[in-house]
Specification:
By secondary structure, this protein is mainly beta. It contains two helices and eight strands; from the N terminus they run αββββββαββ.
Length: about 200
């Protein structure tokens, strides 16, 4: 992971879509927080700059009825990870500084659980996934790497497991992230994190 992606990942882990899940009202809220100073800032051998590939354009999760176009997310002006816009028929977003799905490392997708006045978000049922469920990422070149859910965690945002989510792994994996848990106004207390590995890679 490059220094810029590491910094952005750290910020993302402490924001509130990953923290700002598009809560009630007209637009949702992004609640900023300080980065986790304990996160290493050293470059990773899995740097996306060293692992080029065709970006994802669609994400399918049959068990929860998700079949969504994918938008590409970069960095906001303040150096934090962009989140998908609050719109009707919202889409999941892929963070372009994470590896392309099917490449070594954790490929990161973000999605809203609610989208303000529009109601439910694309990842509204993410917490219902179970080990063994399938996730398919369609890439721009037409290939469709398939992944298998290994576990689903709901964690307090204050305890977001940054290294576990964004740290190096030895094989292609996915991370799907949204908000969850109790809600106060436009804010959710927790994050739902889905971990998945490429189908057939389980040891």
């Amino acid at each position: 992971m490059t220094p810029v992606s590491r910094r952005a990942f750290t910020a993302a882990a402490t924001l509130s879509l990953v923290t700002g899940c598009g809560g009630g009202g007209g637009g949702g809220a992004d609640v900023k927080a300080e980065p986790d100073a304990s996160t290493p800032s050293t470059p990773s051998r899995n740097s996306p700059a060293a692992k080029p590939g065709s970006p994802p354009v669609r994400l399918r999760i049959p068990a929860i009825g998700v079949d969504t176009p994918v938008i590409v997310l970069g960095l906001a002006a303040d150096g934090t990870v962009e989140v998908p816009p609050i719109t009707d028929h919202d889409r999941a977003g892929w963070y372009r500084y994470s590896p392309v799905p099917g490449r070594t490392g954790p490929s990161v997708f973000l999605g809203h659980v609610t989208v303000g006045r529009y109601g439910d978000g694309v990842f509204r049922r993410l917490a219902r996934l179970r080990a063994g469920d399938r996730v398919v990422a369609r890439l721009e070149d037409g290939t469709e790497p398939e992944f298998t859910v290994t576990r689903v965690r709901t964690v307090a945002k204050a305890d977001f497991p940054t290294e576990e989510v964004y740290g190096d792994v030895e094989r292609p994996e996915l991370r799907l992230i949204t908000c969850g848990g109790p809600r106060t106004g436009a804010e959710y207390r927790d994050n739902v994190i889905v971990f998945a590995e490429r189908a057939g890679d389980r040891r």
